[in-house]
Amino acid sequence: MSGTATPHAPPSARASAAPTGTATPAQAPQPAVPALPPPSTFDIQPDLHRILSRLISTSAQPPGAAPTPGQSSADGPLDIQQVTTAATEVKLKLQKARKTVMAMLDIDRSIEDQQDEIEFLETRIAKLKAALQELADPPQEAADAD
């Protein structure tokens, strides 16, 4: 089976001997894709729930009620004047999440750019699949000659 392969095969596939390491071109190294940030970076719902629960528990208590001695001030009832201070943690988390998103690759690309790339890649995949199918099918000339 050292005969010529299909015309679409690379020269190394048409050779009767196995290609050597120096004759085979090296593939360019793929750029490292940065890891996605953990989901907790974007999860502010528990923090908001805690602040709102503290605020609601304040409205349910009679005026002038103080937190119990075993209760920390961070878990105790929250007065309306303290909401801004309590929300600082949430604001900082949102700023961090915004910076993280803006640091992601290709964040500035439009939807049209992304759709164009998707179409290009789908076309490329279809061509590669067709080439693989053509290589998998036996040549008709060799079958007719037998």
Automatic annotation (TrEMBL):
Reply yes or no: does the keyword Nucleus apply.
yes
Q: What is its main location?
A: nucleus
Q: Which GO terms describe its cellular component?
A: mediator complex
A Pfam family of this chain: Med9
Function field: Component of the Mediator complex, a coactivator involved in the regulated transcription of nearly all RNA polymerase II-dependent genes. Mediator functions as a bridge to convey information from gene-specific regulatory proteins to the basal RNA polymerase II transcription machinery. Mediator is recruited to promoters by direct interactions with regulatory proteins and serves as a scaffold for the assembly of a functional preinitiation complex with RNA polymerase II and the general transcription factors.
Q: Which family is this protein grouped under? A: Belongs to the Mediator complex subunit 9 family.
Protein name, per record: Mediator of RNA polymerase II transcription subunit 9
Gene from which this protein is expressed: MED9
